[in-house]
Structure formats: structure tokens, C-alpha cells
Specification:
Blueprint: H1 9-12, H2 15-27, H3 32-43, H4 50-58, H5 62-80, E1 83-93, H6 119-132, E2 136-141, H7 150-162, E3 172-176, H8 182-190, E4 196-197, H9 205-211, H10 220-224, H11 226-232, E5 238-241, H12 249-267, E6 273-275, H13 296-309, E7 314-317, H14 323-332, E8 336-338, H15 369-378, E9 382-384, H16 388-391, H17 396-405, H18 409-426, H19 430-444, H20 450-464
Parallel strand pairs: 1-2, 1-8, 1-9, 2-3, 4-5, 5-6, 6-7, 7-8
Bound molecules: iron/sulfur cluster (2 copies).
């Protein structure tokens, strides 16, 4: 029985409700009157339910689809301006006891090299990341209670936050580790993590159990209810995601929005972020073996509809996607991207080794951070290294209420410019710096509040003089 307020996975992600939603969407995919009504509601920037959004996803009318794209673009501009937040993944360990069929780290893969970073190696990785200019990381580790217990993850977080190399610092560590207990989530919260990210992979229970035949991850309910335990453990900001390509995308899309509605109904705050990965080729993994693959246009439509349905939720895309795809979906609603990512354990500090097969997936966008930053600016975006909210205690419902009142805009824009200035002074190539300085000069004038504008201008000068870490 569908109940968004239930704490039972099978009730807040009710299979019957998803199937009914898909049927309803099919019946109404040509119902222009209904679609117009849904679009009018979306224009009010209040989001859409999973049913409404599913009708839009089923709609095949090109004109109406273009209206969805235009609206997504406008909502993106209204809430996120032209800023794109930058981050990098950091792989700590690829030991894993699970049997996920789509991931090369699965236990039975005996030809992948297994690695776990020592604290010294974590330090080396962090220095390499700081030297590129990164301030925000997402740490990743397989599930292995012997090799990667929670104490190991906590040690790594402490090490990461403790390293101050030249002007560098990692100011926000987001964590992407397996579903765990309330007690462990509390420990992560106390260690000062930013967002806890856990991809559902697929919301379809039967497929989920087939794709996760062995290991603790096999337990669908335990995995699906993880965000509720994380919130019980004090983590305010949680990040959802499905691995598009495993199951029928329309099923996943409805499930994803139902999960967001569940968090809002139970905890009063929806997901902080939604990630949109697609299955990629890797050691022992052929994406063609999964029949739910989606083309780039469908992928773009999904991104646009997520933007429309949950306007306040950040959307993340990784270097799994090519430059061209990234360019398209950034316009339609993505607010955070990774840059210069290595998806292998120890990949940042070590020399690139052609025989190394410890990567989790093939990276499509292989450009350096400097190249990605320059590319974004050439497209008219402001690359932002901002981490201010979590450090100012603006998390969970505090963050969301600021977002909903539009007040957050007075922080994001100047913070983006100040952190970009830090990047330009400390890490950028001369060409990137030149472009960035011009951009900052122009964009400082776009800060609406005079007082904030003047403070930001003074701070930009102080950054030039060597002072760091200003924030609104
Ligand atoms: S997806 Fe995660 S849990 Fe599954 S095999 Fe890969 S690392 Fe392990
Ligand atoms: S001010 Fe907050 S919401 Fe805005 S970019 Fe910075 S961390 Fe993100």
C-alpha cells in the first residue's frame, strides 16, 4: 500500500503506485490539456509530483518537449544563475564484498587490482587534488567491514580535513559509502561530512535483487531506507541517484521522485542533491548487457524534468559523460560537475599506469581542471568552488528555507566569484586567469545588494593580497 510517510521501503516506493503512474502517464501522454496544466504548475516553481512529472516524461510532442526544456533552463537560471559548483571524487578503497553485476569492484572480479589507501596515500591524493584547485570532494569506497570499516572512513575524513598544503584546503567532504547503521551515520555526521550520497541503483525491487545477488547490498529494504537512518543519525543533507541504464528509465524516474517526496513528507526536507549517472564500460563490465540503456536525448529530457520537478535540489553530473553531453545538461539544470576526475584508487598522486585496472568506470571527459574551468567560462558560466553553506551551518531545512525564499542567491553569486578568484590566483594557467579576471569584474556588478557587492569587491582585492577563505 503506497504511503509516502511510511518508513518501509516497499510502502514509500510502492511497486503498484509506480506501475499505476506509468499507466496514467501512457494514457495521458497526448492529453495536451493536462500537460498544459502541469506545465503551468511547474512555471510556479513549486515542483511537480511523480505522477505529473511522469506524464511529461511520456509526452512525445516536440513542441511541448521544447517548452519543458525552456522552462528547465529558466528555472535553472532563476535558482542557480550561471554558477556551476566543482567537485572531485576521491576513491579510498575498491575492496568490496558485494556482487553488483554492473560494477567492476564486485567480489568475484579476481583480475582487478585491489587497493586501499594508507593515510599517507590519502594525504598524497589530497595534496594532488589541492594542487589542482579542488575544495570539495566526494569520497568513495566499496563495502567491506574488514578492509573499509567505518573507523577507516573516519580516519580518512580526518586526514583530508587536516591537510593544508600551500593555499589549499578541502573544505567539504561528501561521502558515498554503503548503507549503514544510524550509529555509523552519527559518527559521519560528527566527523563533519557534507552530503551523504547513496545511489539507489534501481528502485525496481526484483531487478535490484537480481543485480545484487550476493553481499549485504542484496537487502533492498535496508538499502532503500538508508537515507532515513542517515537523517536519524543527524545528517541533514542527503544525495539520491539511480544508475540509469539498469532498468526501465521511466520506472526509475518515478521511483526517484517518490523517494524525494518521501524524504520531504517524513523529514520536512527533500534531497540535497540528485545524481544522474549512466552505466559505463569498465573492467569486466559491458554496458550493452543491460537493457535499460538510454540515448542522449532521453537523458537530457530526464535532467530537464528533474530540474522542473525538484527546483531546490542540486543536480550532479560526473565525468562519466562526455563534454558534449555535459554541455547540454548543464544548460538544462545540472548545478554541480566533477572535473579532472580519476576513478581509480590512488589515481591523482600516482603516475598514470596503463596496466592499472582499478578504475570503477571509464571517464569520458578527460580534461584537466584548468581546461574544464576555462571551458565553463567560455560558455558563460561561473565555475564555483564554494562550500560556504555547510560551514555556516546552512544545512537541511535551514538551507531549504533560504533557498525557497530566494535569499540564498545573495550568498551563492559572491561566493562563486570569491572562490573563483582564489582558484585563478593560486592554480589557473595565464589564459584561464585572464578570462576569469574579466568575468569576475563583470559579474561583481551583477550582485544585487549594494552592501554585499562592495564587501565582495573588497574581498576580491584581499584575495589578490593573499588572504583566503572569505564567505557569505
Ligand atoms: S557498486 Fe559499490 S557495493 Fe557494488 S560492487 Fe561496486 S563498490 Fe561494491
Ligand atoms: S552559498 Fe551555499 S548553496 Fe550557494 S554555492 Fe555556496 S554552498 Fe552552494
Amino acid at each position: 500500500m503506497y504511503d509516502p510517510k511510511s518508513l518501509k521501503a516497499e510502502e514509500f516506493i510502492d511497486n503498484g503506485e509506480i506501475l499505476d503512474t506509468l499507466r496514467y502517464a501512457d494514457e495521458n501522454k497526448d492529453n495536451t490539456e493536462l500537460i498544459e496544466k502541469i506545465l503551468a504548475k511547474a512555471e510556479e516553481r513549486k515542483g511537480l509530483t511523480h505522477r505529473e512529472a511522469s506524464v511529461l516524461l511520456a509526452c512525445e510532442d516536440e513542441k511541448l518537449i521544447n517548452r519543458m526544456y525552456d522552462l528547465a533552463e529558466q528555472i535553472k537560471k532563476d535558482f542557480y544563475g550561471n554558477r556551476i559548483v566543482m567537485f572531485a571524487p576521491l576513491y579510498l578503497s575498491n575492496y568490496c564484498v558485494n556482487g553488483c553485476l554492473y560494477c567492476p569492484y564486485h567480489l568475484k572480479n579476481t583480475h582487478i587490482s585491489r587497493k586501499k589507501l594508507t593515510q599517507q596515500e590519502v594525504k598524497n591524493e589530497v595534496i594532488a587534488l589541492q594542487d589542482m584547485g579542488h575544495k570539495r570532494l566526494a569520497i568513495e569506497a566499496g563495502e567491506d567491514p574488514v578492509n573499509n570499516p567505518i573507523e577507516y572512513i573516519l580516519d580518512c575524513i580526518n586526514t583530508i580535513y587536516s591537510i593544508k598544503h600551500k593555499n589549499g584546503a578541502i573544505r567539504r567532504v561528501n561521502v558515498n559509502i554503503a548503507a549503514t547503521t544510524v550509529e555509523n551515520y552519527r559518527k559521519l555526521h560528527e566527523a563533519g561530512i557534507g552530503t551523504y550520497i547513496l545511489f539507489q541503483e534501481t528502485y525496481h525491487k526484483e531487478s535490484y535483487e537480481r543485480l545484487h545477488p550476493t553481499g549485504p547490498k542484496h537487502n533492498y529494504a535496508y538499502h532503500t531506507e538508508a537515507m532515513d537512518r542517515a537523517m536519524e543519525g543527524g545528517i541533514d543533507d542527503v544525495g539520491l541517484g539511480v544508475l540509469f541504464g539498469l532498468e526501465m528509465y521511466r520506472y526509475e524516474f518515478a521511483g526517484l521522485l517518490m523517494h524525494a517526496e518521501h524524504l520531504e513528507a517524513v523529514h520536512g526536507v527533500g534531497p540535497h542533491t540528485i545524481s544522474v549517472p549512466r552505466v559505463k564500460r569498465a573492467d569486466d563490465i559491458d554496458p550493452d548487457e543491460f537493457d535499460g540503456g538510454i540515448d542522449d536525448d532521453t537523458f537530457a529530457k530526464i535532467c530537464a524534468l528533474i530540474r522542473i520537478s525538484v527546483p531546490y535540489t542540486g543536480m550532479i553530473i560526473s565525468t562519466r559523460e562526455s563534454k558534449a553531453v555535459r554541455e547540454k545538461v548543464i544548460r538544462l539544470g545540472v548545478s554541480q560537475i566533477s572535473g579532472a576526475s580519476r576513478t581509480s584508487v590512488g589515481g591523482y598522486a600516482e603516475e598514470e599506469d596503463e596496466d592499472d585496472n582499478s578504475a570503477q568506470f571509464d571517464v569520458s571527459d578527460k580534461r584537466t581542471l584548468d581546461e574544464v574551468v576555462r571551458w565553463l567560462m567560455e560558455l558563460g558560466y561561473i565555475p564555483s568552488f564554494c562550500t560556504a553553506c555547510y560551514r555556516e551551518g546552512r544545512t537541511g531545512d535551514r538551507f531549504m528555507s533560504l533557498c525557497k525564499s530566494g535569499q540564498i542567491q545573495n550568498c551563492c553569486h559572491p561566493n562563486a566569484l570569491m572562490t573563483l578568484k582564489e582558484y585563478l590566483v593560486d592554480y589557473a594557467s595565464p589564459e584561464t586567469r585572464k578570462l576569469g579576471e574579466e568575468l569576475i569584474e563583470k559579474e561583481l556588478e551583477n550582485i544585487p545588494k549594494e552592501k554585499v557587492r562592495n564587501i565582495a569587491k573588497e574581498r576580491v582585492v584581499k584575495i589578490e593580497e593573499g588572504i583566503r577563505d572569505f564567505r557569505f
